[in-house]
Specification:
Creatine Amidinohydrolase, 2 domains
């Protein structure tokens, strides 16, 4: 395996992060979040469930520390010269503290405190091992650099979107009466892998009939029936970049209530996408989405944010909602290069649900829709 991006691209990212460290008067930072390590270095491995970290000095080359058996993955996926491994019997936190001290850090060290893979016990122990060093939280430093994608990142997201589109379309065509939800999921998985997807940040969702009223309902043994909706959502991965798509097909004529949900959801998606452009904010898009749903008298079915940023992801999530979400509290304006998943979904628990989404690239002008599906009924195009 070779690095996904050029040496120049990776060097630029690292330089920007080191500039942030200097502005914060930090001597060194310890990064544990897999997505942040990947963004800064290109390093990726399914073995991120074990301890790994990137020690980044304000000046100079970083050190990547990981389980000894994983070192070869670091060598294959990055341009780094300083990669260290620790044995399974060693204390990785002590090794981390040793690396930090070896970089000459004596004043301020930046640590993450919200990483899913740097638990509170490890954070407390590392702080203790660093001794009198002042520790500063850095959770948003890398995250905010990831928000606006480079041209190379945008191309990766376009590649991911093309694979996602193929997977959703194949799943939509397979969602026929008599098929099990797991049969549809198998088609989705197989198609995305055949089209070029890596392992994904979250499993595809396939929910039919009343199960479509449950958020995050993965496939089951349920047999799809005539005259009901089948809700699909998935995101392929290309270079760890994910571009999701939610889409609903129906196996015959829908009842009036479900048909109204579908039309409201599609109109809400389109109205929201239209505002994903410079000069507007996520709060505005969320308000537009809710207003559209409310115009159908269905606001009681809509109980969530209207979307989130997407980019690099490892399980258990495919999104960057912690960086930016389309909700009433987010007032930063959209900038060209941001990529968001606009995903209104209307559900009635125990009855059913309808969801239509789009992954959207913010440009200087019209938003560019990256993910879409033209299948409304199995075998039929919109």
């Amino acid at each position: 395996m070779t690095p996904v991006f050029s040496r120049e691209e990776q060097s630029s990212r690292l330089h920007r992060f080191q500039q942030e460290l200097q502005q914060q008067s930090l001597d060194v930072a310890v990064v544990n979040t897999p997505e942040n390590i990947c963004w800064l270095t290109g390093h990726q491995t399914p073995g991120y469930y074990t301890y790994q970290c990137l020690v980044v000095p304000a000046e100079g080359e970083p050190t990547l520390l990981m389980r000894e058996t994983e070192v070869v993955n670091g060598e294959d996926t990055t341009y780094l010269d300083d990669i260290h491994g620790f044995a399974d019997t060693e204390d990785p936190l002590q090794r981390t503290a040793d690396v930090v001290r070896s970089r000459g850090a004596s004043s301020r060290v930046g640590l993450e405190s919200r990483s899913w893979f740097f638990v509170p016990e490890n954070h407390s122990r590392l702080v203790a091992l660093l001794g009198a060093t002042e520790v500063v939280g850095i959770d948003q430093l890398v995250a905010q650099l990831r928000l606006v994608k480079s041209p190379a990142e945008v191309e990766r997201l376009r590649a991911s979107a093309a694979i996602t589109n193929a997977g959703v379309r194949a799943a939509a065509l397979a969602a026929v009466p008599g098929a099990r939800e797991r049969d549809v999921a198998a088609v989705a998985f197989a198609t995305m892998i055949q089209e070029g997807s890596e392992y994904v940040g979250m499993e595809p969702f396939v929910a039919s009939g009343p199960r479509a009223g449950n958020i995050h309902a993965s496939w089951s043994d349920r047999v799809i029936q005539p005259g009901e909706g089948v809700l699909l959502e998935m995101a392929a991965s290309s270079g760890r970049y994910h571009a999701p798509l939610m889409h609903t097909v129906w196996t015959g004529e829908l009842d009036p209530e479900t048909a109204a949900l579908a039309e409201a959801c599609r109109q809400a998606r389109d109205a929201t996408v239209a505002l994903v452009r410079p000069g507007h904010t996520p709060a505005e898009t969320h308000a537009r989405c809710r207003a559209t749903v409310d115009s159908f008298g269905l606001l009681d079915t809509y109980r969530k944010r209207s979307g989130y940023s997407v980019g690099i992801a490892f399980a258990p999530d495919w999104g960057e909602g912690h960086i930016l979400s389309l909700q009433e509290t987010e007032h930063r304006e959209f900038q060209p290069g941001m990529v968001v998943h606009v995903v209104p979904t209307l559900r009635r628990a125990g009855v059913g649900g309808q969801g239509f989404s789009a992954t959207v690239l913010v440009t200087e002008g019209e938003p560019e829709v990256l993910t879409r599906c033209d299948v409304t009924e199995p075998g039929l195009q919109a």
